[in-house]
Fold this protein.
Amino acid sequence: MPMAQAQKLAPALLVLPPDFEAYSQASDQVMAILEDLSPLVEQVSVDEAFIDVSDLPDDPGVIAARLQARINQETRLPCSLGVAANKLVAKVANDYGKGSRKGLDYPNAITVVPPGEEAAFLAPLPVQMLWGVGKKTAARLKTLGIETIGQLADAPAGLLGAHYGKWAADMQRHARGISDSPIVLSHTLKSISNETTYDKDIGDIDEVLHTVRWLSDKVGYRLRKHHFCAGTIRIKLRWSDFTTITRQVALAEPTNHNSVIYDTAAGLLRAAWQRGRKVRLIGVGSSNLQEPAVQMSLFDPGQDKETKLLNALDELREKYGKKVIQRGREVGRQSAFEEEEEE
DNA sequence: TCTGGGGTCCTAGGACCC
DNA sequence: TCTGGGGTCCTAGGACCC
């Protein structure tokens, strides 16, 4: 495969300060360094990214060493890198390097897996290091006598297929270090949600509804900030015994209005409510995100008014801080924005 | 640890339509 | 009218990841 010639790095930053601002600043700084090297950067999370350096003239191991030195110097932060022909192996290589440097100092490892040696590199490692294999799957594989990635690669296809169906073939390809998942330059948001866990379990539905209102405001604010409307609203409810349910409903018309989100979520909560049971966690979520239609509701001028009002409030919130603005009917309860630390 | 928060993807079943 | 197949959408829940 000609693709196997491509070399990709998966740098993972380990950022130490438990201080959010420093955290995201450092993240931006590192991403800028990566983009300076190549435009083919995929940011996976605040502290992880893939970069495709296959078009650069130098040896990928050398590039990695230079990159790490630059990050160390410019951000004063350690970082670990994995180098391999595809993202999957680069990720495992990076995790492996980080893990083996645990202890004295913060991981600042570089692990290179040369093309063609993917399967051999992976073989002795525990299956759980494979992307997509977590605790549950690892435990099930163990009952089949499979504990290392190599054993997974060599397992009879029929045996795996019987237990994992379609997923079995993918899992086995991954175990052999084969993956063609491309670098994705920008990820589009699929859902936006907020949830909260109570200090003590709550048996009063009004109190939970109060929280739902607050969470709905947060979700609405974030939807508007990202210029999205949601086609589906969802609640997540964890009872005191830790059983968790979700309830969702598709809207007739997508929205990013706090009031519509709240009314929908409150309806779902009332329908799912069981008197006598107590709640540990409540969440409000939105999905099926889409761009707002230009002519929202021709026949509902009230909605248009609400849009304008919300936009005005959002602007004031951004300008003067979170505490200033509360709608009249909301006064007396905690604003969703008092402790907002949104990017 | 008696269990934080915000995401993604996959599967399965039911409703509905042709 | 009944039966069945197949496609699609929606909902619920599980597993996993950072």
